Amino acid sequence: MMNSDRHKRAVEELTKIAGEVYDQLDAGRIPKMTIPLRTKSNIRFDPKSAVWKYGKATGARSAKKLRGAQMLLRTMYMLEFIEDMIKNSKSSTLREMYYISEGWEKAKFTAQDESNMLAEDLEIITACMREDFKLRPEEDGARVMGNITIQETDRKGKKKRINCRDDVGDSGYGIPYNVEKEKIEFVDCDADFIIAIETGGMFDRLVENKFDEDSNAIIVHLKGQPARSTRRFIKRLNEEMKLPVCTFVDGDPWSFRIHASLAYGAIKTAHLSEYLATPTAEYIGITASDILNYDLPTDKLNDRDIQALNSEKTDPRFKDQFWKHEIDLMLQIGKKAEQQALAKYGLDFVTDTYLPEKLTELSIIK
Amino acid sequence: MMNSDRHKRAVEELTKIAGEVYDQLDAGRIPKMTIPLRTKSNIRFDPKSAVWKYGKATGARSAKKLRGAQMLLRTMYMLEFIEDMIKNSKSSTLREMYYISEGWEKAKFTAQDESNMLAEDLEIITACMREDFKLRPEEDGARVMGNITIQETDRKGKKKRINCRDDVGDSGYGIPYNVEKEKIEFVDCDADFIIAIETGGMFDRLVENKFDEDSNAIIVHLKGQPARSTRRFIKRLNEEMKLPVCTFVDGDPWSFRIHASLAYGAIKTAHLSEYLATPTAEYIGITASDILNYDLPTDKLNDRDIQALNSEKTDPRFKDQFWKHEIDLMLQIGKKAEQQALAKYGLDFVTDTYLPEKLTELSIIK
Lengths: 366, 366
Fold this sequence. Notes:
Order of helices and strands of chain A: HEEEEHEHHEEEEEEEHHEHEHHEHEHHEH
Low-confidence stretches of chain A: none
Oligomer: homodimer
Number of helices of chain A: 13
Largest sheet of chain A: 6 strands, mixed
Mean pLDDT of chain A: 91
């Protein structure tokens, strides 16, 4: 990955943090860092942007206590490691950084949670993204199929134009971990909307049934709870190519959350909701009404499902009439269904009947 | 996917099964099907081919009892479903087939295990592969990076040439679920060996460090326990392009099994070992000796690890001196290590030091 202004800004922001700690030490004060409190009570649903954000409560990480001092020391080591990576055009997984810290002596992490958390803290303080620090997760990127041409700047800095339908095999284009402008540019696109799909089986079904061509759609595989790069990729397509987004997932409380995190953000990434969330995304996954209307094969809700549905009843992301009704109905019938359950009516039912009906209802297709 | 001689043969073999059942009924006999016993005791390590195979014990599935009759009925429905798919150039996930059976009345499956098992039974009886029946798993294909040009016949029958280094983004070429000759042909390849890698983080590390270019390697991501298509892809590359294969995995008993299943086959797919297994594959994953020699960060073996190591001591796939020594040593030191633990010495240690040392030792590079 090549460096860009975003990486330069990241270095500046990180240097600023180190500078502040240095200044405090220089003035004979015990150094400390101020960061927003990362507790559930400090996360609020912002009605204006329709996404989740951190509130105004902050906490201080002071070197007065051993634990705080150790965290500050780790922060300093981490700043240096990130600067080195940016200088050398390298990147690292969060797991590798954890092992790299073996060489940091007293600042060594004792569990991966600690290093992941510190990476998130730095995102919050600097308002940069982990990707700007050259830190990436283990997760695989998802796949894309449809008539969009992207330009990817590859590891050697070479620009490659790839049409996500004509230049790839049937498994589609693999989304890289960094999808910011210096890595991915959208060159050309002939599509009416994006359909984001939970399971690989359903992605392959739509690809085999040529749903991308017949319905002028971009098909994106979410792979369960979507990775940050997948959410950001969809967000950018939505904003820059003006494509409406719909999510097609299983009909159970966990899949409702997949939709909500794509549309409104997740607690863990509340500081990045404006980068990652697509609040206009429409739900076209399986609903309790679908289970009844289409007489779908179902499984019984288990205790964890029921608990999750009840907790969604107080989740601001599910507060409108549609969700109130569907969550209550699901609790009432006590059943859930997978998206592949539509195969009850044959392999083409989903593309010939179900999706056209749902998409017309939402005016996504005419 | 287009049809080929393999699909024609699959239809013939399936018709033969239906024919036999019909003939038995016509002669006034209670129909039955004979299949190899799929018990662990009927699997043996075949020293000649160095892979796992079924033995000669067989069992009969007779319609005398209700359960047997139901299985025969299901088989007939499934034969028809498969024939239809082949006729219409469609394919189906195993999950979709399970839901399709909703329309089979008395033959409806009550759990996915039943339908998966029946698909495997048909593979064994016909000596065809699930892929010949147009049945595919949910699993995602793995990724490939390196200087090999493949020709993929896409869903529309169009032949596409894709170089897995020059024509793809940094996430590589995605292996489709069917990798047989009518779908994938190897056109051209300039590489000395294949390195199959357990984790996505390490795959991306080797890609970022340009290990494919610098060491003339094809890098394949296994994604944990590899899918059938990944094993078959590697097997074909090994045989047709004469490329040696090495597996680079974590240092724990579960990763030893990933290597063993790639090299010698797995119990679940013992009837397909000759198609899937690459018995000449060399292990270059983390060993107990590596943990000591490179002083790697480790985790303690837990009870399940210890149990797994002990059971590997009687597994014929681990019977040579190398494995005897390494398994005993791991039990003795009581520790395991991840492949990313090599990052202790920096992000380039794996490609600059560890892999060259291991590959030279095994004479894979000179």
